[in-house]
Design a protein that fits this description.
By secondary structure, this protein is an alpha/beta fold. It folds into 2 domains: 3-18 and 238-424, Enolpyruvate transferase domain (UDP-n-acetylglucosamine1-carboxyvinyl-transferase, Chain, Alpha-beta prism), CATH 3.65.10; 22-235, Enolpyruvate transferase domain (UDP-n-acetylglucosamine1-carboxyvinyl-transferase, Chain), CATH 3.65.10. The chain has 14 helices and 24 strands. The strands form 6 sheets. The protein has a 4-stranded mixed sheet. Strands 2-15-17-16 form a 4-stranded mixed sheet. Strands 4-5-3-14 form a 4-stranded mixed sheet, with helices on one face. Helix 1 (22-31) runs parallel beside helix 7. Bound molecules: uridine-diphosphate-N-acetylglucosamine. Residues 23, 26, 99-100, 126-133, 168, 170-173, 311-313, 335-336 line the site of uridine-diphosphate-N-acetylglucosamine. Uridine-diphosphate-N-acetylglucosamine (UD1) binds next to helix 1, helix 5 and helix 6.
Length: 426
């Protein structure tokens, strides 16, 4: 199994191209099921999760072709054609590995009138149920049955417009319901909806296919169902979590890096926080420039929340920065339970962190020490890479498959700006 070796202490300088957003691309691919015409997606990142979604869609009868981008950061072009839906069955083996597979439910119900999708089950970062999705589809007129770990959903006469308020502004539930409602009969009003940039990207994509949607980026989305959607060519938005991760990498290692293609408005909460820690962030005409001089980062507290708040997907990476900061900070996680799995691994590198309930208290140390570490999820594993950039000596990150799910060519991007990092294949 591959591992990543990092020798810490190198400052970063240069530029990193930002890839297309995984969390948008996956949903756009699923939404390609909504039309019998071809959909072409540009700027698709090359990631294990994208391959898993491709496999799932091909099982439904989608014809899928990929034209590979050549250069670092140049995305793939994926053509999806769901001329006929041949099956609407998503097996446990696929959904278990990637929770985003559950996002096919909305498009399948809307276009095909039924689907059998495995329940995702628990995962390393908490229970992550899908009850809001299911309640929403019931409100849209679907019959939902749970049997043997599967959801059987039927809407034979089509979904029907309704008003539904989400108990929490869940990203996945908002998006799943949106992709169901676009072909429903009549008007759907979704309240307390997610405002995340990827949710907006999906909305814009659906509008480009002919959907009638208003209120994107707000907490109330109104959708007037249409008879049919058409094919479209669309470029996936840049990945704000990848952007934030490399901004934090620069803050932790020191140096100056331009994140080419990054969207400044998608990382507002992070920029504010980075400035408090002593880093400099500027918009450039190609993206965002991050700079930190030799001084130690300063401690600053943060609470994760829904957009436009500080994203939970950057919490682990920010903790790595705080582990080396001058002073103590509190990091509160409010979106997921159990999202502090990286703490014991950071502690193996000399970090001083104590967790009480949903708050981690981080007492910054002057130097972290390289160590063999192991990660349990995607964002946790990249936080260990970031800690390795700042640590003295050698860090080996095991279970690299987590990184490959969400970070495109991470070691190439970081070594191009001067990090001493390589993949060890065994
Ligand atoms: C998406 C992102 C993930 C990110 C998260 C929050 C993708 C593929 N993943 O995940 O990277 O960390 O948004 O920004 O886009 N919940 C329920 N019942 C439900 C749905 C959610 O209780 O039916 C809870 C979850 O357990 C969690 C919270 O709501 O505690 C937020 O989850 P949600 O916003 O749905 O996250 P995902 O869509 O799974």
């Amino acid at each position: 199994m591959d591992r990543i070796r990092i020798r810490g202490g190198r400052r970063l300088k240069g530029e990193i191209p930002i890839s297309g957003a995984k969390n948008s691309a996956l949903k756009l691919m699923a939404a390609a099921l909504l039309t019998d015409e071809p959909v072409v997606l540009r700027n698709v990142p090359r990631l294990a999760d994208i391959a898993a979604m491709s496999d799932l869609l091909m099982q439904f009868g989608v014809n899928l072709n990929i034209r590979r981008g050549e250069k670092l950061g140049q995305g793939d072009v994926v053509r999806l054609h769901a001329a006929h839906i041949e099956s609407a069955f998503a097996p446990y083996d696929i959904v278990r590995k990637m929770r985003a597979s559950f996002q096919v439910l909305g498009p399948l119900l809307a276009r095909h009138g039924e689907a059998k999708i495995s329940l995702p089950g628990g995962c390393a970062i908490g229970a992550r149920p899908v009850d809001y999705h299911l309640k929403g589809f019931e409100a849209l007129g679907a019959e939902i049955e749970l049997a043997d770990g599967y959801v059987l959903a039927r809407a034979k006469g089509g979904l029907k417009g309704t008003t539904f308020e989400l108990p929490f502004a869940s990203v996945g539930a908002t998006e799943n319901l949106m992709t169901g409602a676009v072909l429903a009969n009549g008007r759907t009003v979704l309240k307390n909806t997610a405002r995340e940039p990827e949710t907006q990207d999906l909305g814009h994509f659906l509008i480009a296919m002919g959907a009638k949607i208003s209120g994107l980026g707000t907490n109330e989305i109104v959708i007037d169902g249409v008879e049919k959607l058409s094919g479209v060519e669309y470029a996936v938005m840049p990945d704000r979590i990848e952007t934030g991760t490399y901004a934090l990498a620069t803050a932790i290692a020191g140096g100056e890096v331009e994140l080419v293609g990054a969207q400044v408005e998608a990382i507002g909460a992070l920029i504010e926080l980075l400035e408090k820690t002593g880093a400099d962030v500027k918009q450039t005409n190609r993206g965002v420039m991050v700079h930190r001089n030799g001084a130690r980062p300063r401690a600053a507290d943060v609470t994760t929340s829904v957009f436009p708040g500080f994203p939970t997907d950057l919490q682990a990476q920010y903790m790595a920065l705080m582990a080396t900061a001058e002073g103590s900070s509190h990091i509160r996680e409010t979106v997921f339970e159990n999202r502090f799995m990286h703490v014991p691994e950071l502690a193996r590198m000399g970090a001083d962190i104590h967790v009480h309930g949903d708050v981690a208290t981080v007492n910054g140390v002057a130097t972290l020490k390289g160590a063999p570490v192991m990660a349990t999820d995607l964002r946790a594993s990249v936080s260990l890479v970031l800690a390795g950039l700042a640590a003295e000596g050698e860090t080996i990150v095991n279970r690299v498959y987590h990184l490959d799910r969400g970070f495109e060519r991470l070691e190439e991007k970081l070594s191009a700006v001067g990090a001493d990092i390589e993949r060890l294949s065994t």
